[in-house]
TrEMBL record:
Domain of life: Eukaryota
PANTHER family cross-referenced by the UniProt entry: METHYLTRANSFERASE (PTHR43591), RHODANESE DOMAIN-CONTAINING PROTEIN (PTHR43591:SF110)
Organism of provenance: Cladonia borealis
Protein name: Methyltransferase domain-containing protein
Cited InterPro entries: Methyltransf_25 (IPR041698), SAM-dependent_MTases_sf (IPR029063)
Residues in Methyltransferase domain copies: 72-173
Coiled-coil portions: none
Database matches in Gene3D superfamilies: Vaccinia Virus protein VP39
Matching Pfam families: Methyltransf_25 (PF13649)
Amino acid sequence: MAKQTTSSLDSKPLYNPPADLKSRVKASYDAIAPKYNKWTSQHSTPRLHYLNQLLSRLPTTTSSCPLTPVSVLELGCGCGLPVTQKLLSHPNFSVTANDLSSAQLALARTSLLPNPPGPAHDRLTLLEGDMLALDFPPATFDAVVAMYSIIHLPRAEQVEMLHKIVAWLKPGGWVLANFAAEELAGKEMQNWLDEDKGWMFWSGWGTEGTAEKVREVGLEVVVQDTVEDMVDVKFLWILARKSNS
Ligand SMILES: C[S@@+](CC[C@H](N)C(=O)[O-])C[C@H]1O[C@@H](n2cnc3c(N)ncnc32)[C@H](O)[C@@H]1O
């Protein structure tokens, strides 16, 4: 593998992801979790903007049917701030939050499951591991949320992940996720956010390619926005719905 520097934004057309990709991504997030979380806290605005778009379509305590239970899966939840926390602020929501990184989940546990137990204790399940290895019965969730996380899968796996998400959603369920707006067969960086421990990987099908794949798995795209983040990188935000039938 050719060595890349932090400034390299090249993707390779015929790219094979490293076999130990997941363990390397995990090791990096385990090492840089506090640094990443501090850096990314300045990017909360788009997260909350699109989360509110999802929430406005779900039965929340502020809507007309406040007691309807809502079950949400969050993939790559990180430290749980601000997204998992906001989901849990609705007392009718139960959240299953997954992340590959034990350090991120330890931070999520501390901030979302305080001791003594708070009101969200019984409504949050934290699951450590690769999102692609998760297994749920069909039609388990009302919504699946994945912010800045599916981008860390090799892009063939992103399509597999979309198929799994559709199967796990109840009829009429929602998925909110963001993806790379740029087409990336695979992009590696040696030193993302940390000079020694920041090896990182991203990939994506680009705006049109991703939207097409979302439709191909059977979802109706309701919101499709390409937005420049504060880091000078564009992300595709998708809010999509599984049909009722
Ligand atoms: C860029 S951070 C985003 C965290 C959080 N969603 C947010 O918006 O701040 C990506 C997160 O995805 C997790 N992640 C990366 N690859 C993953 C995988 N294959 N399965 C589950 N989580 C993964 C990382 O550990 C990290 O916490």
